[in-house]
């Protein structure tokens, strides 16, 4: 069976040396290259591809690196070299960073606190296209997805809703707003209901105050 070819990307020489030493002793793995930042990763892959050399099967990618970070580099790798899979290896567990790395195309997101056995398991899983994440990372990803959903649901006001809000701030009733905008009273009521829901307010008075505070109302 051919060995799984790996490129190590980390801006710390000692980290790369430690990973390389361990992986070279592990049956089934071969470290075929190293890079100190994301830009170096892309340059190395492009040169190797142009020369017809062996590309890695996996990239063990550090997240925070100078010149180009792991997320940016991963996005380019996935775009230009779709056959290469990326495993993010980092000390950072922020929800946003996990989300960005996975969205960029990383197969797995692994913390540097994992055991050697867990890292090997993650690499073998990534090689087969199987995402591997610890419980902490999975929770961070779940929180990130939930927050993204909340942000998406908090959609901005439409242009028509802004017009209605402006007229409410000027003290107009539903009938007057309908006449001003040439829409039915039923449509006006729908816009008012949407405004109350989106702005999380309870009545028209609060909508009027909200419009003034947002600088939307004419003085």
Q: Roughly how many Å is the radius of gyration?
A: 26 Å
Shape: elongated
User: How does the helix and strand content classify structurally?
Assistant: alpha/beta
Unreliable residue runs: none
Please supply descriptive tags for the structure shown above:
single chain, 219 residues, alpha/beta, 5-stranded parallel sheet, 10 helices, 13% strand, elongated
Model description:
The chain has 219 residues and is of the alpha/beta class. Helix content is 56%, strand content 13%. The protein has 10 helices and 5 strands. The chain has a 5-stranded parallel sheet, with helices on both faces. Helix 4 links the parallel strand 4 and strand 5. Keywords: DNA-binding, Phosphoprotein, Transcription, Transcription regulation.
Give the arrangement of secondary structure elements.
Blueprint: E1 4-9, H1 13-25, E2 29-35, H2 38-50, E3 58-62, H3 70-80, E4 85-90, H4 95-104, E5 108-111, H5 116-127, H6 135-153, H7 159-169, H8 174-181, H9 185-199, H10 204-213
Parallel strand pairs: 1-2, 1-3, 3-4, 4-5
Helix pairs in contact: 2-3, 3-4, 4-6, 7-9, 7-10, 8-9
Briefly summarize what is shown.
This protein has 219 residues and is an alpha/beta fold. The chain is built from 10 helices and 5 strands; from the N terminus they run βαβαβαβαβαααααα.
């Amino acid at each position: 069976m051919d060995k799984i070819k790996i490129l190590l990307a980390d801006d710390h020489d000692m980290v790369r040396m430690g990973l390389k030493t361990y992986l070279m002793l592990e049956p089934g793995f071969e470290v075929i290259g190293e890079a100190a930042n994301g830009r170096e990763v892309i340059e190395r892959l492009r040169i190797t591809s142009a020369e017809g050399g062996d590309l890695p099967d996996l990239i063990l990618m550090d997240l925070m690196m100078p010149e180009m970070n792991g997320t940016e580099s991963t996005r380019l790798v996935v775009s230009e070299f779709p056959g290469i899979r990326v495993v993010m290896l980092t000390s950072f567990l922020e929800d946003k960073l996990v989300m960005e790395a996975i969205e960029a195309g990383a197969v797995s997101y692994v913390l540097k606190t994992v055991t050697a056995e867990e890292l090997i398991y993650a690499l073998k899983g990534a090689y087969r296209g199987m995402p591997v994440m610890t419980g902490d990372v999975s929770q961070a990803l779940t929180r990130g997805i939930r927050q993204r959903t909340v942000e998406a649901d908090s959609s901005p006001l439409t242009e028509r809703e802004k017009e209605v809000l402006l007229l409410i701030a000027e003290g107009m009733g539903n009938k007057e707003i309908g006449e001003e905008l040439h829409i039915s009273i039923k449509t006006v009521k729908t816009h008012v209901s949407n405004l109350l829901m989106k702005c999380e307010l309870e009545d028209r008075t609060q909508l009027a105050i909200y419009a003034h505070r947002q600088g939307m109302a004419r003085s």
